[in-house]
Write a structure and sequence with these properties.
GO cellular component, one term: cytosol
Structural class: alpha+beta
CATH topology of the largest domain: Alpha-Beta Plaits
Strand content: 15-25%
Radius of gyration: 20 Å
CATH architecture of the largest domain: 2-Layer Sandwich
Low-confidence stretches: none
Distance between the termini: 10 Å
Order of helices and strands: HHHEHEEHE
Keywords: DNA-binding, Transcription, Transcription regulation
Largest sheet: 4 strands, antiparallel
CATH superfamily of the largest domain: Lrp/AsnC effector binding domain/regulation of amino acid metabolism (RAM) domain
Number of strands: 4
Number of domains: 2
Mean pLDDT: 92
Helix content: 25-40%
Pfam family, one: HTH_AsnC-type
CATH class of the largest domain: Alpha Beta
Number of helices: 5
Protein name: AsnC family transcriptional regulator
GO molecular function, one term: sequence-specific DNA binding
């Protein structure tokens, strides 16, 4: 991956709907050359896909929390992955260092919905306890940064 690839990625992160011609104009390449690079970045796994980013408040999901999961001794990351994917309120799940086994990011319509989601999460057979932190406000949220050219 060279500096041009990194610029293409940065432009796509900023606007995934930008045309190859628009990107090409900004990186001094033709649209077909940009397409070839994007295809190569996709086939090599650098670009995993394109997605639509939704503003949670616009669809009524204004309540969010981070939940530490404490699990039974032999719970694997794969088990946590499978279980958390069953819950539509889960927007992220991570294994972490420290006392908790995993950290789960939930979004819900309101506190009642959040409580229901937490109860369903707590009902997973490997979860022994949870500790929750409700988000008061989102201060910074950025897309994945593009590495600086070497």
């Amino acid at each position: 991956m060279d500096a041009v690839d990194q610029r293409i990625i940065a432009l796509l992160v900023n606007d995934a709907r930008a045309s190859y011609a628009e990107i090409g104009a900004k990186v001094s390449l033709s649209a077909p050359a940009v397409k070839r690079r994007v295809d190569r970045l996709r086939s090599s796994g650098v670009i995993k896909g394109f997605t639509t980013v939704i503003e949670p408040a616009a669809v009524g999901w204004t309540t969010e929390a981070f939940v530490e999961l404490f699990c039974t001794g032999r719970t694997t990351p794969a088990q946590i992955t499978v279980a958390t994917r069953r819950h539509p309120e889960v927007v992220g799940a991570y294994t972490v260092s420290g006392q908790a086994d995993a950290l789960v990011h939930l979004r819900a319509a309101d506190i009642g919905h959040l409580e229901q989601a937490l109860e369903r999460l707590r009902a997973e057979p490997f979860v022994t306890s949870t500790r929750s932190m409700v988000v008061l406000s989102r201060l910074v949220e950025t897309p994945t940064p593009v590495p600086a050219p070497s």
